[in-house]
Every structure is written in structure tokens, then in C-alpha cells.
């Protein structure tokens, strides 16, 4: 059955791989499933055809036969459940790996997104200078806790799992802030994720679409 995902026609990050279709591409590469990509413009994302797939008018979406999904956590979880390679077989280890998907999205990603909002969307506000250190410290607090848990392990719970895939994807968004470098074991963890051949293929595929025009 053909799998089709949606991605930005032109990603605002210019191909740094931070748009969330990269997570889905990565998961599909890890499990060895081919996929097609439908590119959508910002305008098309808010029109009825796309809203029928994604109620919030965002990317990515995922279509497979008569199944249509949105939300990267749900999409990656679905891929990991349907195809082997991203979740352990042992029931308890599987439940823990799934827990890390939720932890990445519900506990680690929110302060990171708040930081992006403060740095990018609110940079011109008079109160941003005062607020930014507070937001950065909220991120640091989470990273301290995550760093303590990871310790010197390669992955969060045994072998690489969908939980690591989402956690690395979430942490990648922090790189430009410099905060990730304050936690060497986390920046090594992210580098390990990026070194995976499946990640490299996913990154290259989205970069190919978002390359700035020549000249
Ligand atoms: N929680 C959603 C977030 C999706 C999301 O924020 N997508 C961004 C691209 S990475 C988007 O479509 N932004 C454009 C918009 O919201 O209009 C998920 O994980 O799938």
C-alpha cells in the first residue's frame, strides 16, 4: 500500500530538517518503507482539502490506503506498531519506549517550542529581553533532568527506539540556541541520531526539496 506524507512546499528553515516531516521520513527510513511526498503551500494547508486531513492546517499528514493521520507522535507510533524496527518486542520494554515518545512531545518539547517562540516570533517585543532568560532556564531544567537520566548510555532505554527518534528530533530544534552544547551527553546523543543512515536519508530527502534556488 502506498504511503503518502505531506511536507512544506518550501520549508521556512531552508532545509535544516527541522520541519516535522523529517521525523516521519526518518521513521519510514528506519523501518524500510518507501513513501511518496505531496508538497503543500502555506495557502493550501489552510484550504478544505488539506483541512480534511489535518484539522489544524499543518504538516505533516500521513495517508496509507483508507487511513489518514496527523500529529507526528501518532504517525511515528503507528509506523512503529505496523512495521518492525522501532519498538522492542518485549511488552514492558515496548511500553517504556512508547513512554519516551510521550515524554519527548509532552514534557521536553513544550519549553523548547516556547523558546523558539520567544526568540523568533516575539523578538521585537519590549519584554522579550527580560523573559528570554526565564524561558531558557526552563529548557535547561528539562535538559538537566534528561541528561541525568541518559547518563552515559547510547539511547534512553536499551536499543534505539521510536522514543529516541522523537526525542532526538525534538532536541535538534535547540541546536541554534547553543543550549544543547551545555549538555555534552545530550549533544552526543543527538549526533548519534543524526549519524544513523536512516536519518541521513530522511535529511537528504527534505533538503533536496528545500535547497535555495541556484544563483
Ligand atoms: N504537534 C504537531 C505540530 C505540527 C506543526 O507544528 N507543523 C508545522 C510544521 S513543523 C506547521 O505545519 N506549521 C505551519 C502552521 O502551523 O501553519 C505535530 O507534531 O505534528
What order do the helices and strands come in, and which of them pair?
Blueprint: E1 3-8, H1 21-31, E2 36-40, H2 42-45, H3 48-51, E3 61-64, E4 67-70, H4 72-82, H5 91-121, H6 128-150, H7 162-172, H8 184-194, H9 197-210
Parallel strand pairs: 1-2
Antiparallel strand pairs: 1-3, 3-4
Helix pairs in contact: 1-4, 1-7, 1-9, 5-6, 5-7, 7-8
The protein binds glutathione (GSH).
Q: Low-confidence spans: pLDDT under 50, at least 5 residues?
A: none
How many H/I helical runs? 9
Radius of gyration: 17 Å
Q: What small ligands are held by the chains? A: glutathione
Spatial order of strands in the largest sheet:
2-1-3-4
Strand tally, please?
4
Order of helices and strands: EHEHHEEHHHHHH
Reading off the top of the CATH hierarchy, the class of the largest domain is best stated as Mainly Alpha
Which architecture of the largest domain would the CATH scheme give at its second level? Up-down Bundle
Overall 3D shape: globular
Residue-averaged pLDDT, rounded?
A: 96
Measured by DSSP, the beta-strand proportion falls in: 5-15%
Would you tell me which CATH topology of the largest domain applies?
Glutathione S-transferase Yfyf (Class Pi), Chain A, domain 2
Q: Which sheet architecture does the biggest sheet show? A: 4 strands, mixed
Secondary structure: helix percent: 55-70%
Q: Could you give the distance between the termini? A: 40 Å
Helix/strand class: alpha+beta
Count of all domains: 2
Structure description:
The protein has 215 residues and is an alpha+beta fold. The protein has two domains: 3-85 and 199-209, Glutaredoxin; 91-196, Glutathione S-transferase Yfyf (Class Pi), Chain A, domain 2 (Up-down Bundle), CATH 1.20.1050.10. Helices cover 56% and strands 9% of the residues. It contains nine helices and four strands; from the N terminus they run βαβααββαααααα. It has helices spanning 21-31, 42-45, 48-51, 72-82, 91-121, 128-150, 162-172, 184-194, 197-210, and strands spanning 3-8, 36-40, 61-64, 67-70. A four-stranded mixed beta sheet has the order 2-1-3-4. A hairpin with a 2-residue loop joins strand 3 (61-64) and strand 4. Helix 5 packs parallel to helix 7 and helix 7 (162-172) crosses helix 8 (184-194). The protein is globular, with a radius of gyration of 17 Å. The protein starts with a strand and ends in a 5-residue tail after the last helix. Bound molecules: glutathione. Glutathione (GSH) binds next to loops.
Amino acid at each position: 500500500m502506498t504511503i503518502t506524507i505531506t511536507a512544506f512546499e518550501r520549508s521556512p528553515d531552508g532545509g535544516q530538517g527541522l520541519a516535522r516531516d523529517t521525523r516521519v521520513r526518518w521513521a519510514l527510513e528506519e523501518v524500510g518503507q518507501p513513501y511518496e511526498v505531496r508538497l503543500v503551500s502555506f495557502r493550501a494547508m489552510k484550504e478544505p482539502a488539506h483541512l480534511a486531513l489535518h484539522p489544524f492546517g499543518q504538516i505533516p499528514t500521513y495517508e496509507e490506503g483508507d487511513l489518514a493521520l496527523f500529529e507526528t507522535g501518532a504517525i511515528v507510533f503507528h509506523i512503529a506498531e505496523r512495521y518492525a524496527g522501532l519498538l522492542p518486542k518485549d511488552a514492558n520494554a515496548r511500553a517504556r519506549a512508547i513512554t519516551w515518545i510521550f515524554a519527548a512531545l509532552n514534557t521536553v518539547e513544550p519549553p523548547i517550542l516556547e523558546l523558539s517562540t520567544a526568540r523568533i516570533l516575539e523578538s521585537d517585543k519590549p519584554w522579550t529581553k527580560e523573559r528570554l532568560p526565564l524561558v531558557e532556564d526552563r529548557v535547561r531544567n528539562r535538559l538537566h533532568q534528561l541528561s541525568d537520566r541518559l547518563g552515559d548510555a547510547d539511547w534512553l532505554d536499551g536499543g534505539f527506539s521510536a522514543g529516541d527518534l522523537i526525542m532526538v528530533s525534538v532536541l535538534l530544534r535547540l541546536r541554534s540556541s547553543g543550549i544543547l552544547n551545555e549538555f555534552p551527553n545530550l549533544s552526543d546523543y543527538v549526533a548519534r541520531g543524526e549519524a544513523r543512515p536512516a536519518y541521513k536519508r530522511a535529511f537528504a530527502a527534505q533538503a533536496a526539496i528545500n535547497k535555495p534556488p541556484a544563483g
